[in-house]
Design goal:
31% strand; five-stranded antiparallel sheet; OB fold (Dihydrolipoamide Acetyltransferase, E2P); 15% helix; 131 residues; two-stranded antiparallel ribbon
Length: 131
């Protein structure tokens, strides 16, 4: 693929992504990364980009939290039951219609920007710490 085509059609191509500045290990370890299971998915047509409202069960201590995610490359029914990774301590964000997003669900981006969920192996309990 030509470099010009990569620049135009693949904004997240690994050849285009520069490394970010280093952060301290302490800064990284301040993030509360946990495993959870998607329990509910609803459309969110009020967002500028195609999005879902997603509920994830993060286990007995945290419980169920809601977030919005631009992962409409998945059908809602294929998301239910997926074990995913969430960042729980980034604060809540108010989105259109007053919906509150309580965590960030993690994904890897294809070169064209399509998000693919980071999934947790089978057998990991909801709420397990991601290290």
């Amino acid at each position: 693929m030509s470099e010009d085509l990569i620049r135009r059609s693949e904004p997240f191509h690994p050849k285009k992504l520069r490394r970010k500045a280093n952060v301290s290990p302490e800064s990284f370890f301040e993030l509360d990364l946990r495993s959870g299971v998607i329990t509910s998915v609803e459309s969110f047509p009020e967002m500028n980009k195609p999005s879902y409202k997603i509920e994830v069960d993060f286990g007995p201590v945290t419980g169920r939290l809601w977030s919005s995610a631009q992962i409409c490359n998945y059908e809602p029914e294929e998301l239910i039951g997926k074990s995913v990774v969430g960042v729980l301590n980034i604060g809540q964000k108010s989105l259109p219609t007053g919906f509150l997003s309580h965590f960030l669900i993690l994904a890897a981006l294809d070169p064209d920007g399509t998000a693919r969920l980071l999934e947790v192996p089978d057998g990991i309990e909801c709420g397990s710490k991601i290290a």
